[in-house]
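Example 3.2
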Amino acid sequence: MENKKIVRRQRELVDLLLAQKLITADMVEKAREETTRTGMTMDRALEKLGFITAEDIVKTQAQALGIPYMDLSDYIVDKAIVQLLPESVVRKYNAVPLFKIGQTLTVGMLDPQDIVAIDQIRRVSKIELIEPVLVSERGVQRIVEACYGTTKSVDDIIQAMGQARPAGAAMGLTAAATDEAPIIKLVNTIIAQGLRDRASDIHMEPEEETMRVRFRIDGLLREAIVLPRKLQGPVTSRVKILAKLDIAENRRPQDGRIRLKIEDRVLDIRVSTFPTMHGENVVMRLLDKSNVLFGLEETGFSGQDLKVFRQLIRRPNGIILVTGPTGSGKTSSLYSALATINSIEKNIITIEDPVEYEIPLIRQTQVNPAAGITFATGLRSILRQDPDIIMVGEIRDKETVEVAIQAALTGHLVFSTLHTNDAPSALTRLIDIGVEPFLVSSTVAGILAQRLVRLVCDQCREEYVPAGDVLKSINVEPGRKFYRGKGCVKCKQSGYAGRMGIFEFLVVDDLIKRMVDERRSADEIRKKAVEQGMTTLRQDGFMKAQKGLTSLEEVLRVTEEG
């Protein structure tokens, strides 16, 4: 019943936006494809694809309903007013009490026409006059997080468990030895908060007296919660049960996977456990299907380099490499490239470690050493599957690169990643692995090096002039203005919200091929490529810093000189 209600509401919204000419039928069709792929709702798909903003959607709804709209992005709620409704009611109905004038309580709601919700709010708050106003989902989440954040929720759960616990609970040997329902709620709360905070990873780290929970947000770890030591065993066991791991085995590392739906978002979680002095360390990587970027522009790749890269990935054969350290967004760039050229006429097969996101029409496999499937053996098998395009998750050894080169020489387009600091170094790395220079020069078509930089928060962005010695060190004239975030509620006082890529794209043209054949060094190749117009990682970062997308300090943090 609830699903039918959501579908009806989404259909009405689309009709409304079409009538207002804020979107087109073509946009709706593309958004429907996105909802099928990711499971997100139509309004989120339209927003993600850049067809309309969340604020425009809510304002249009408010105008059509004749209900006031209220922007909660900077709204500060009186905690005493919020306490008029319990957290369970606020979360269930996505309704937050905002202010009370006389005998009337104004409540911000995602659905101000929900009579059942209004009746429940009236009954629980014991206030007869309820005035609903329309607010955005982000606005509700901001207020809920500020008033019922993870720490408070976790404290409530721990308190609900009581002081007395079974003797086996601290050992964490079995799920039955724990007060199961609160532990389930505790783990769910931590995962949900990580998702709301845009965390890519959740670290659960046992220490002598506590269990520390940290979220990796925009590439940096931040402390989120500190749990009492006695919960380390039960929490770890719960995560291992969800990931279908052996809860009795705590002396060796284990890897597993969890798939679940939280707050209408489909989530894949890769789980890794590792034994330490004080217990098992658990790391959960959150793979949110609704947030994966499959457009090259969305990753931050733009300008002339994007145009040339688009042409390159449509060639019939050759090798295209993406390089950078772990966590630099290489896999996302590969997925974006594959999604760009994906079609019913092409047979695209991948071998990955592991498969992070599923893409329609593409056959995806992951390495399984226990079954004899490595990158090299998997790649050989893929060649017997009549592929047009192949993606190899990573080139790690001579065997894998030799098979990739053979595939490129026999008419296949091969995508892969390599761990090097910049694009020119990838060419010399292949030679160092043991590949003949003429094979490298004749098969590698282009190399994309990248890093991820944090985006300056758009809610608290401000202009500033960096210190003179900083500007001098990077050959920028004194007084040049850049941008930074001063810190606000949205970015949790960090000044940053979100990330994007900075890129260095090397096309292997005739001149570069000759230099490879002559075994020239990476520095020589780099110097010649820059002379021919290659934009370095740092240069691309500076251009994005000058546009206010990121900060100068962030670019300097993730790049080397050059």
